[in-house]
Fold these 2 entries.
Entry 1:
Amino acid sequence: MTNTSNASALSSPETSRSEDGSLHGRIVVGVDGSEPSIDALRFAVRTAKAFRTSLEAVAVWTYPAGAEVALLVNWSPENDAHDILDAAVETVFSTDIPPWFSSTTKPGSTARALIEESAGAEMLVVGSRGHGGFVGLLLGSVSAVCAEHARCPVLIVHPTA
């Protein structure tokens, strides 16, 4: 289900193009499968529609530190990241994925990968907390690092209670 179309192929009635045919920017959203990240994806969809930009969802994967390679023979964090991203996309879009949306997985540190993706983006959207960290934290470490170091404005979506 992962749609990896590039921005030059994107078009829809809701997405305007500039004279050279490109979209009016790109929004990036981090997705890890947690409820806050799915809320962030929903908010990013509404924002991309409102600003007529493309939207790229990014899931980041890595092998756990100290993991025994022999124990990981039948497990792939990259495949898990694809599955998590596909499930989040299905939750938000069902089967009606717009052409201005794309998704990708990247290896590495989550904050570092999202900061790299923020280069050239109009906005980076992240949930206030993901699967990592401590339950009592009001702002997760990834969202805090992204807010400090991203190369574009960062929107941190807090859960609605």
Note: Residues 33 and 67 are 22 Å apart (CA to CA).
Entry 2:
Amino acid sequence: MSHCRSTIVRLCARRSELSGVDVSALLREHGLTEAGLTDREQRLPWGFFAALLAQLETALGGPLALEQFGAEVAAAHPLFPLLKAMHFGLAEIQQIAAERLVPHLFDAVLQTLVSHQTDGAARITLSLGREIATSYPFWTFMLGMWRPLPRLFGFGDAHVEVEMADRFAEFLVIYPTELTGEPEDGQEIRRRVRELLLKDLVRFEELLLLPSPDPKTSIFARRLGAVAAPEAQASAATSALEREIREKLDVERVQLLELTPTGLRRVGSTRESLDRARIRRVFWLSGVPVGAVEVERPGEAGHAREASLLDEYIDGFSYRFAEAQNRLPFGTTGFAPAEPEMGDPATGEPPPSSRGRVARAARDGRLSELTCEWQLSDRQRSVLALLVDGLGNREIAARLGCSIGTIENHVTKLLKRAAVDNRAALTARFWKTQRR
């Protein structure tokens, strides 16, 4: 049976009780006793934890409140102050959380993978095993745990873009611009010393107590009040933007989020929260985040049509959202987004406001052509889409829920279809299109 440590489960159960959830009835439903929650070494079934999170999300008032609770748990964890005192860098903290702490808590449930982007952002992929029941509240809870780390270490807030499906969730954490790295001198010595100490530090979760609302992550009571209180009627501009996003992406539900000093707050005409697979993109304008949008993400394919379209139109959506919220930078008079080209992708890393927009639009057009030309299966198409996006075999396996060996077999077949002998040549062959 898949299980996880009682540490985090116990905190969620306590918060659920305070929010009016009948935890005792839920324990009996899963054949458990209350003693299991008090034993710090007890392993609890994943099914109980997933059901508990679903009820906690409802009791707190939706995904935004559950995300905030995850942020408070991260802020209250005793491991992070110790790591800060030992002069760990923020990128190291992120990697330790993903590759050591999370597997320690959910060793029979999750696979984790961290990769660092050329612009300093971190891409964190969490993947459930095939036998594990999916839980979107769990992805939301984990999203909250990544967000507050920069603020806890004295930097500004991180901006997180997320794509979650049934079997995986991918968090792109864009660090504050004022983030600086540690000095190079003595890095190797510090690394070796910290490696030895870290073996014991990851077991400090038994000291974790139920967190109180923490202003270092955001003000919990004010945030919940903003979410639960009756909201003013959506402006005509905001409603028009929601309709435009739904029409262009061909989705039923869209959620607009305003960035406030205490976190994200729902705006617009959509009152209910998205409670299934979804894609979040940050609205950037002149290098400044002004809000975010979440859309439904049906299915769990290796690449999502909705994500590609959202990246294609995100610049225009950002401008119109800022205009509707009266947050346009001084001197901005209009916006006309450039049409994406179908040629080779631009070199270098795109800025956060258009991350992957042109490349994804061009990629999907080329992918449709080669699917017919090379007679690709659905899985081969998914592998190819992620491969040309620059993901390695481990990352592709984590997203698609396969073994690395399975992905290697698919890559070998793709190399044969393209008549090339390495991944770089396959990527070059992929982008060799006649449309200029």
Note: Strands lie at 3-5, 43-45, 110-116, 122-128, 159-164, 168-174, 254-260, 263-267, 278-285, 288-296.
